[in-house]
Amino acid sequence: MNRFDELAADWDDDPAKVARAAAAAAVLRDRIPLAGSGWRALELGSGTGLLSRALAADLGPITLVDTSEQMTVLAAEKVSAVTEAHVTACCLDLTAERPRTAPYDIAYSLLALHHIDDLGLTLEAVHDLLVPGGWIGIIDLDHDPGGSFHRTGHDAAHHGGPHHDEVIDHAHDGFSAETLTRLLRDAGFVAASVTDAGFVIERGEPPRPYPVVCGVARRAD
Q1: How many domains, the chain?
Q2: Percent of the chain having pLDDT more than 90?
Q3: Which of 17, 38, 97, 191 is most buried by its number of CB atoms within 10 A?
């Protein structure tokens, strides 16, 4: 059982996470023309599906992908409860397995990419799962020199996380706009734009604000 399996049951009890997903959904709606689209959607690193729940009213069938089995089970239940569209949840690694529901019109993620080791392969896999002209929207941490975000903060402490001198498992300390733009372009995406997302994540004791970036790009027509 991985760390996120252990956290799944209580994940949505933190109102900050729910508010974060709502803010991320608002940013994606502002930068991608998904309102009322009915698009086929893929959420990468879906967790309990908070972002998909916030976007569900504008989407068609939704596929949730995560490597945590417990998160995936909860996501299927919770997203299905807020939409009449078909919901599929898959516990898999996109670099090794293709969801049966592909292709998609849009793929999106919220604070998932910085947990993925091989981002190049993962983003290439997402690119290949999109229809020509399909969109990708990424909400993730801005570059966090020193990785202080992943030392014990509010989220970890709320769930009985590690002590203050321990570091929560992660692969990247956030992404600068330049780095995320390059990753998207290298994966084959076009019209990549990475900007400040317009909200921050408060974490730590005392709370410290961590900026968030929004990356948007498309698969070529």
Answers
A1: 1
A2: 63
A3: 17
